[in-house]
Amino acid sequence: MIPDAWRSVVRRLEGSVTLDVAGFATQFTLPLEHLEEVYLPLLTVLDAEATNGRVLAGLAGVPGSGKSSVARLLQYVADEVWSPGRLVVVGMDGWHYPNAILEQRWTTAPGGERIPLRKRKGGPESFDVSALASALQLLRQAATVVRVPVYDRRLHEPVPDGLQITPAARIVLIEGNYLLSPSPPWDAVSGCLRPRLFLDVDLPAARERVIARHMRGGSSAEEAVARFEGNDRLNTEAVLATRSRADWLVSLTPSARLRSR
């Protein structure tokens, strides 16, 4: 049940807003349907969980699904409905290994050849999962200020201590690809997160967004498609395999809705 006081905020939130997402000023259109069918119901779910202490929630989805955007918009709505700082968003991408380390490490491609781990950047192996799990344990305690890394898409690198989270944050929303994975070492991450959310998306649209992101980063159209097929497609398949572990399914298109599993 959405409180009436929250609904009174909806009308002034509807429309266009510019927010910072991963270092870029991004303009969004926030329709009334999205507010009433997704964002306010999500806040209701998270608020109910927060009665027992700090909530560590997880929002997963395939590459290009819009996780960072949805999380940032949810934070924007929460700041207006409650007060700034009650809900904080943390991106899993901050725990990417630096590019220098990815260049030094090797992995095996699906065809069996050995390749630098940099070519699988964004894949499950390219993250410092133990450091992420340790950070979640600190965040769960909600006793001290916790500093976490952030990923800067302009630099294509993680930035240490880029975000600090104070004990005043009652809801910490982690967003990223593999947050629902039951496979070691990711199980140490997924085990910390409740509720678990999964963002459904049209897969061809997600593919086009990832390719466009690669082109903004300097790749040609041909290079961007090759990068998707050689890396992001594999990551998409890995993430889709974890969808069944979600407590809630979130979708914005073709219609906005929040469904309990």
Task: Give a quick summary of the entry.
The chain is α/β, with parallel strands linked by helices. The protein has one domain (4-253): Rossmann fold, CATH 3.40.50.300.
Task: Give short descriptive properties of this protein.
261 residues; Rossmann fold; six-stranded mixed sheet; two-stranded antiparallel sheet; 8 helices; 12 strands; 38% helix; 25% strand
Q: Would you kindly provide a written description of the structure presented here, covering whatever features stand out?
A:
This protein is α/β, with parallel strands linked by helices and 261 residues long. The chain has a single domain (4-253), classed as Rossmann fold (3-Layer(aba) Sandwich), CATH 3.40.50.300. 38% of the residues lie in helices and 25% in strands. It is built from 8 helices and 12 strands. It has helices spanning 4-13, 32-49, 67-81, 99-104, 129-141, 187-190, 203-216, 221-240; strands spanning 15-21, 24-30, 55-60, 87-91, 106-108, 114-116, 146-152, 157-165, 171-176, 196-199, 248-251, 257-260. The strands form 4 sheets. The protein has a 6-stranded mixed β-sheet with strand order 4-9-3-10-11-12. The longest helix has 20 residues, at 221-240. The two termini are 18 Å apart.
CATH superfamily grouping:
P-loop containing nucleotide triphosphate hydrolases
Count of β-strands: 12
Total helices: the number is 8
Amount of helix: 25-40%
The major sheet is characterized as: 6 strands, mixed
Succession of helices and strands: HEEHEHEHEEHEEEHEHHEE
SSE diagram, text form:
Elements: H1 4-13, E1 15-21, E2 24-30, H2 32-49, E3 55-60, H3 67-81, E4 87-91, H4 99-104, E5 106-108, E6 114-116, H5 129-141, E7 146-152, E8 157-165, E9 171-176, H6 187-190, E10 196-199, H7 203-216, H8 221-240, E11 248-251, E12 257-260
Parallel strand pairs: 3-9, 3-10, 4-9, 10-11
Antiparallel strand pairs: 1-2, 5-6, 7-8, 11-12
Helix pairs in contact: 1-2, 2-3, 7-8
